[in-house]
Design goal:
This protein has two domains: 54 residues, no CATH class; 268 residues, Alpha/Beta hydrolase fold, catalytic domain (Rossmann fold, 3-Layer(aba) Sandwich). About 9% of the residues have low confidence. The strands form three sheets. A ten-stranded mixed sheet has the order 4-5-7-6-10-11-12-15-13-14, with helices on both faces. A three-stranded antiparallel sheet has the order 1-2-3, with helices on one face. The protein is 24% helix and 23% strand. By secondary structure, the chain is of the alpha/beta class. The protein has seven helices and 15 strands. The longest helix is centred in the N-terminal third of the chain and has 20 residues.
C-alpha cells in the first residue's frame, strides 16, 4: 500500500475513534506485534456482548501471490479490508469481486500488481476506503469464462469467494460482482452461473455475450455501462446481455436500443413495468435492470462508471451498496 493510502486509512481510523469517544461509547486500545494499534468499540451503549475488535489487517490492501501448495487458493489476488473490518458476526460486511481487463492478466506472482491499474483497486490505492471486502484476483489466461480442458475459471472464482464467505464475516445478502472489458464479460458470466448467491452485478464494456439463463438476473441488481463508440468491445455486447436479462430482443421493436436518442449526451435506460424507460444523464435510472450509455470515451468507460478519479459518492455506488439478495431494491 502506498503512503497516501496508509495515511488516509490512519486518519479515518482516528476519526472513527474520536466519533466513538464523543458519543460516549467505550473505546479500548490494544497493542500486539502484528499492528501498532487495534481500536475496538461497542455497537451501542445498550450492547452487553463486549467490544467489537478490529481485524489486524483492517484498512490494508494486501497482495496474496499465487501458490502451488495443495489446497491453496486458485489465484494470486489483492484483498482490501475496510478500516473498520472485524470478524465479529454482529457486523457482517459486503464483498465485491472485481475482475480486471485483458491488459492486467499475469502470472499471479511477480506481476500481480498489474491488477491495480483500474477500477476499485486503483481507487483503493488512491486512498478510497471501500465499506466492503474487495477481492481482485489475477487471471493467468485471456479468459475469465473458460470451462474446458480441465480449466474452470468461474469455479475457481467461486472457490475464492467461498473461502471468504466461510472465514471473513461476509454478509451473504451483499455479494457484488463487477468487472471491465474482459472482466466485464466475466462478471456477466459469473453472475449467470451463481445467480443464487450474487445480489448485484456491474459489468462495464463487457466482452462477449453471456450464455443461457440470463433471465435469472432479472431479480438481481444489474447496472451495465458502455460507450457507443467503443471500437474494441462493441456496445452491442452489453445491449444483447441487457436484452437477455429482460427477455427482449436486440433487433426487435421491444429491444433496449430501439428508442436510443443517439445524441451527444449520457443516457440511462431502465426496465420498468416491462417497458424500457430512457432518461437523460448517466445515473437517473430506476428499477433493478439499468444500462448507462456514454456517447464517447471509446473503450474506457470504466473511469466514469466507477468514478475512479473521485470516490464512492455517486448514485452507482450508493445503489450497489443498497442491494440485498433477499430484497429487489428499486
Amino acid at each position: 500500500m502506498n503512503p497516501l493510502t496508509q495515511l488516509t486509512s490512519a486518519c479515518r481510523l482516528v476519526a472513527r475513534c474520536l466519533t466513538a469517544l464523543l458519543a460516549l461509547q467505550p473505546v479500548t486500545v490494544l497493542a500486539n506485534d502484528v499492528t501498532p494499534v487495534i481500536v475496538s468499540y461497542l455497537l451501542d451503549d445498550s450492547n452487553d456482548d463486549g467490544p467489537i475488535v478490529l481485524h489486524p489487517d483492517a484498512g490494508t490492501h494486501t497482495a496474496f501471490p499465487l501458490q502451488s501448495t495443495p489446497g491453496a487458493l486458485p489465484f494470486g489476488y489483492y484483498r482490501y479490508l475496510p478500516v473498520d473490518f472485524t470478524l465479529d458476526a454482529r457486523k457482517p460486511f459486503p464483498l465485491i469481486l472485481f475482475l480486471h481487463g485483458l491488459g492486467e492478466k499475469g502470472n499471479g506472482t511477480t506481476n500481480l500488481n498489474k491488477v491495480l491499474a483500474n477500477g476499485p483497486p486503483k481507487m483503493i490505492e488512491r486512498g478510497v476506503d471501500f465499506p466492503a471486502i474487495v477481492l481482485t484476483p489475477q487471471v493467468t489466461i485471456s479468459d475469465w469464462q473458460r470451462q474446458r480442458d480441465g480449466i474452470d475459471i468461474p469455479g475457481d472464482l467461486h472457490t475464492l469467494v467461498a473461502y471468504y464467505k466461510n472465514n471473513f464475516n461476509v454478509d451473504p445478502e451483499r455479494i457484488y460482482v463487477t468487472g471491465l472489458s474482459l472482466g466485464g464479460g466475466g462478471a456477466w458470466n459469473y453472475t449467470r452461473l451463481y445467480s443464487d448467491e450474487v445480489a448485484a452485478v456491474v459489468p462495464i464494456c463487457g466482452v462477449g455475450t453471456a450464455g443461457a439463463n440470463m433471465d435469472q438476473l432479472a431479480d438481481l441488481g444489474v447496472w451495465a455501462f458502455h460507450s457507443v463508440d467503443d471500437g474494441v468491445v462493441a456496445s452491442r455486447n452489453s445491449a444483447r446481455n441487457i436484452n437477455r436479462v429482460a427477455g427482449t430482443s436486440l433487433d426487435q421493436p421491444n429491444g433496449v436500443m430501439a428508442d436510443y436518442p443517439n445524441d451527444n449526451d449520457d443516457h440511462i435506460v431502465s426496465r420498468v413495468n416491462d417497458t424500457w424507460v430512457w432518461q437523460l444523464g448517466r445515473y437517473n435510472g430506476q428499477g433493478n435492470t439499468r444500462y448507462t450509455i456514454f456517447p464517447d470515451g471509446a473503450h474506457n468507460s470504466w473511469t466514469r462508471a466507477y468514478n475512479e478519479n473521485g470516490g464512492l459518492d455517486t448514485p452507482m455506488w450508493e445503489w450497489l451498496f443498497s442491494q440485498r439478495k433477499s430484497l429487489a431494491t428499486q
